[in-house]
Amino acid sequence: MFIDDSLAKGITKRLIEQFDAEIENASSTFKKSTHFISLEKRTNYEKILKFHKDAFENISFCYIQGGSKRHPYIAYNLPTYWKNREYEEWTENSIHGSINLKRLPEWDFNRHYYGSSFLIVEHALKRIVQRANLIDDLIEIDSSRFMNELKYLPIWAGFILFFLSDVKFPLGFDTRLLSASVPTPNGILLCKINRLESGAHFLEVRTFVELDKLSDEQKDLRESLLDVSQGLESSILCFFPYHESLTKNVKFELYETYTILLFRLKDSIYELSNSFLENHDDFSIYELSKLITEYFSKKLNNFDLNEIGNSDRRLKEVGYINFMIEFSATL
Question: Which pTM was predicted?
Answer without folding.
Answer: 0.91
